Predict the structure.
Amino acid sequence: MSSDEKTRAKGEQAKGKAKEAAGRLVGNERLTAEGRAEQAKGDARQAKEKVKDVLKD
């Protein structure tokens, strides 16, 4: 996994968790949903890079 993409995926996951927590704290469903979506985007990016690494070997 390239370090840039790995960092980007982890950043998206962390940002998503923070958004989700903030949304739950203030009772904002939209913010909570955005956080979950951002986490999913980070998870997908990470999975894509892992597949690329497996196929590269």
Observations:
- The chain has two helices and no strands.
